[in-house]
Design goal:
Blueprint: H1 2-26, H2 30-33, H3 40-55, H4 77-91, H5 98-120, H6 143-157, H7 172-176, E1 184-186, H8 188-194, E2 205-207
Antiparallel strand pairs: 1-2
Helix pairs in contact: 4-5
Length: about 220
């Protein structure tokens, strides 16, 4: 029973880590993040890179430019190491064998990311063992993948205020009120405010069905 509670606690903590990183760093203000001592430049580059990632995603979740070695599609080993170190600091006071757990959690998260996030966006290129946790042709899809695809599609498709900052381990979007679970996305008002032309009446509403899922 103790192990079961530890697994639940680890899930909660990695979900929070993922939510915080995505919302406050990746979607943060690059200029503000750049003011942090020592790590400011790294945080700023992370935010700028993620903002650029959103600009490259079509309404059907495919990438406008499908370039090899696109770090916006997958996590390299450097991010796996960074995740393991920061997660170790987070769980050390409460989880037994924190170093081993941190390494395993970082590998699991980034393996899932590199296999599922790349499919979310129809990334056509391999992720090799030299680049990061590898993209595997036999990696399982199914109902969990389908749910996460729709979950992440809402994040990309809704313009303006963003929802669904968890990607692989959903939980804290429910806690912090950033869950967007609409079956249809309506960007007409956003388009009118930002474009002021006929595009605002074309393809600004998207509804999701099982047929939309990128395999």
């Amino acid at each position: 029973m103790k192990h079961f509670y530890n697994v639940i606690l680890i899930y909660i903590m990695i979900s929070f880590y993922e939510w915080f990183l995505h919302k406050h760093i990746m979607h943060g203000d690059p200029e503000f993040l750049g003011k942090f001592p020592f790590i400011g430049n790294y945080l700023k580059k992370t935010a700028v890179s993620h903002h650029d990632h959103h600009k490259l995603i079509n309404i059907d979740m495919t990438m406008k430019e499908n370039k090899p070695d696109d770090r916006s599609a997958y996590f390299p080993w450097s991010l796996s190491i960074g995740l393991a170190i920061s997660f170790f600091v987070l769980i050390r006071p409460v989880i037994p064998r924190p170093l081993l757990v941190s390494v395993l959690v970082a590998l699991l998260h980034n393996l899932l990311w590199n296999n599922w996030h790349t499919r979310f966006h129809a990334y056509e290129h391999d992720v090799t063992i030299l680049q990061g946790p590898p993209k595997l042709s036999f990696f399982p899809l199914g109902p969990i993948y389908n749910y996460l695809w729709k979950y992440h599609t809402i994040h990309h498709s809704q313009k303006g205020e963003k929802y669904n900052f968890n990607i692989i381990f959903p939980f804290f979007d429910h806690v912090f009120g950033t869950l967007g679970d609409e079956s249809c996305i309506n960007n007409v008002d956003f388009c009118k405010k930002n474009h002021h032309d006929d595009r605002c009446y074309q393809e600004q509403v998207k509804c999701f069905t099982g047929r939309d899922i990128i395999q």
